[in-house]
Amino acid sequence: MPVAVKTQKEIELMREAGKRLHEVHLVMRDLIKPGISTAEIDACGERTIRQLGGIPGFKNYEGFPAAICISVNDEVVHGIPDPSRILKEGDIVSLDAGLIWNGYHADAARTWGVGRVSDEAKRLMEVTEESFFEGIRHAVSHGHLYDISRAIGEYASSRGYGVVEDLAGHGIGTHLHEPPVIPNYSHKGRGMLLLAGMTFAIEPMINAGTGEVTWSDDGWTVRTKDGSLSAHYENTILITDGEAELLT
Ligand code: MG
After folding, report:
1. Domain total for the chain?
2. How far is the CA of 96 from the centre of ligand 1 (A)?
3. Each residue of 189-222: pLDDT tens digit?
4. Which of 33, 129, 151, 243 suits a disulfide with 233, CB 3.0-4.6 Å?
């Protein structure tokens, strides 16, 4: 499957998907407080997606049982919402959500602190978000894919964090996961040529310790191997002739 260059009409649909998903994240952000369960956040996220006319992009995707992936503390990604999983003061929580609008996907993740969090946790969340913005400075027409990867990885690792290498960003459009695979670390070669109209989900996953991860017995939840905190920040972006456009 070649990397698709979206038409103007497709780009419009992706903007609509992205705008709605951004809205969903704002609604979920306002719920984050000590005492709420991850299942309540998921239910609200799914309700908001549907109220906005979208379809939850993750629900039943490869069998995932919920609309929102909710990963707490040492969980990196793909945490399954659970009524008995109650957020506590000082936790950090990553919310990863997908929304389909007229057949087009948007994908975005945010990590939030629950109540007051440690300076260490705050810094991890900041560096993760900053690494995304370092990466997309290179997301320009006629740039090369791995310049994005290198910028993300070097930014985070030079600040002493572990970059998760077992998971990556991806192309996105009529499918949630389209080519290319977009690593978050320095990669041999330059990678493919970027062209205006390509749409990508860029998503650094950054650990306070090493970048190594393990898969839990539930088949979904990915955790840091050393038990350190992990943060995730993701947007769906559009390559243009100028700066990348954030769709989410
Ligand atoms: Mg993604």
Report:
1. 1
2. 8
3. 999 999 999 999 999 999 999 999 999 999 999 9
4. 129
